[in-house]
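Quick one: structure for this chain?
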Amino acid sequence: MCLFDNYDQVHCNFSGGKDSIALVLLLLYGYKVPKEKLVLVHMRVDGPEENKAFFDWEETDDYLKYCSEKLGMPLIMLASDISLKERIEMRGMWPSSAMQFCTSYMMRDTYSKWARTLGPGKYLCVSGERADESSRRAKKKVFEIYKHANASTKKRYVDWLRPVHHLLETEVWELMRLAGIDPHPCYEYVSRCSCKFCIFLSPTEMAKVAELHPFDFNELVEMEKRMGHTMRYKKSTLFR
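Got it. Here's what it folds into:
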C-alpha cells in the first residue's frame, strides 16, 4: 500500500514557487497520487483577495489560477483575518530568522484553523522545503505529525510530509520544464518566490524590488520610523 492511500485528502501547500509546483508534479507523476485526492492550498499573507497586494506579489493571484488550470486541480485560497502588514505594526517589530512569526501566524495557524473545519478524517499536508536551500531547512523532518491541526480526540488526524526535501534546485526546474509550466514572474527579479519584501532577500534583490515598487518600499521605511525597528540591520541604520 502506498503512503498516500492512508489519507482522505492531500493538501499541497502551494505558494506558486518552483518548489511547491515540483512537489505537486512529484505526487502526480512520481507517486501516482490520484488527482481527485489533491488540493492546492494557498495562504495569502495580505489577507482576503479583495485586499491590495503589499507583501504578496500582485501577480500571484492570477498565477495561482494559471497553475490550478494547468494542473487540473482545485485551488483553495486562505487568509488570516489580520494581514501581515497589520500584524507587524501590532507587534511593533519585523519578523526575523530567529522569530519568523510571518510563517507561524500567516501560514501555519491559517492552515491549522482551516484544517480544523474539515471534521473527522485523515489528512496529509505536503510542503516544498528542500534540504539544499539552507542548513535550517536541511534539519527539518521529512515526515511528522502536524501538531497544530491534529486532534485525535475528534478523530481528525493531520500529518506533514516534505516530498521534495531531497531534490536539488536543478531537478526542481527540470520538473517544471518537463511539465510545461511557466515560472512565477517574480523569478525575473528574485531567487525565491516568497513575500515581495521577504527578510531573506539579498540586499541586491531587495534593491531591485524597491525599484519595481517604490511606493510600497517607501511605506516600509515609514513603518520602520513609526515602530523604531529595522527590517534589516546594517551598522544600526535603517535598511534603505
